[in-house]
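For the sake of transparency, this paper describes our internal protein records without simplification. Because each token names a local backbone shape, the row as a whole describes the fold. One such record is reproduced below, unchanged from the form in which we store it.
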Amino acid sequence: MNASQTYQFIASVLALGHRASRGEEELQQDREKIISIIESGEVDWNGVVFTGSNNYVLQALYLKFLQNELTDYLPAELTDHLKELYELNLERNNIILDHTSRINDLLKSHNITPVFMKGLGNILDGLYSSPGERMMLDIDILADPEHMEEAARLLIDDGFTSAQQYDPKRKKAMKHFPELVKEGLPAFVDIHRMPVNIQYEDLFNYKTAISETRSATDNPGYMVMSDANKIRLNFIHSQLVHWGHHHARPSLRDLYDLMLLSEREDAAKILSTFSPYRREATAYLCLLHRIFGLDSDLPPEISRKGSTYLRRHKIAMDSPRTGRIIYGLLRAWRLYVSIPVRSLFDKNYRLYVKVRLRDPDWYRRNLGVRKIVRKRH
């Protein structure tokens, strides 16, 4: 089983019980297909662990095996390993949730309403079967842009610290306050003044994100975005901010989240009109349906727009070296041609470029050199 087949096998397991318009008989057939693949002896379990870990879905994968009574078909050592990872993540997430409760109460007591986004927002909103199903790297909180600094100050007064100094001059182009950490909390806290990078602010901004915010389904004391806005944020975060449309190998975690959200809202309806990135959004939808084998049909105009992206995804999976070359060319075009040209006409892109050029780490990440900063005497 090669890397592409391993990726597809993991997706097939994650899709168990989530395929639209499927009865019990069809779901049993899906389960039996998984069993047949396992019993064939072709599954590279080391590859499954490697790919699942890189895509942040090992905990979700374990739950799927458990919920569909498939653990008896796995190597015993693998089952024990996955169970241990899941339990550790569940313990970690419960600690994060305890700290989140204090953060929520603290901000609300000062008339700041935090809106919880991404993984934590999904957990609070009951998107997953268990809080341990989703890996979280940080706590993303959206606050009123005028209250970002106050919210950060409240957390700092409560014992949080940041390794990066805050520069108020960069506030207009800043997505969130520098990451805040606290002893005993195994995650960063990001206080956002806008939900996405500055260059996408006209597409999805604070005002858009808080429209139709509501109390979390499973935790009414917390505010989360609407499911439609979660779908929009998922696309922007995966395909634009993290360059998914260029490297054509989006994280299975992002795709899995989108699949779960699609059961609540019609993702095709939401993203097919997502101008000016309609082509990228519809291609992302096509990949979602192909990878997870979803039954619901996409409109023909969406399927046609996704064909090139699907081919690039197949190349990236079957021939990683070729995929990296294609990605390198697309990345160079975007960094050194598309963004500079667009910055001539778009004020948000100008802000983005200005901040990057003042950031020494940008030179290290993209050019392999360190910017020489002259000290003023």
Q: What stands out?
A: The CA atoms of residues 44 and 214 lie 43 Å apart. The longest strand covers residues 138-142. The chain has 18 helices and five strands.
